[in-house]
Amino acid sequence: MKESLKTALDGRTLTARLSGELDHHTASAIREGIDTELFKTRPEVLVLDFTEVDFMDSSGIGLIIGRSEVARATHTAIRITGMSERHLRLLRMSGISKLDNVTLG
What we know:
Elements: E1 5-10, E2 13-22, H1 27-41, E3 45-56, H2 58-73, E4 77-81, H3 85-94, E5 102-104
Parallel strand pairs: 2-3, 3-4, 4-5
Antiparallel strand pairs: 1-2
């Protein structure tokens, strides 16, 4: 199975590049990987890059909401990039765009 999470720290920005399918089978490992890096590096910004995500179900929304809560603990802002228009609509409908530490786009 292809690695579904790659992280890179550039200055005070941690980028988490997700790929493949983001569903209940993969979300747990991705969540743990991101959280480990958040607490280890304590960046100012966490970029969640969805450019290479082929499929995402509600687990993706849960992953973002959960990372928002964890990011608050480390005083980290979240920027979501690489989302398809379809998934951006779903995120807006879910209320994620109203979270104070999350920016879409």
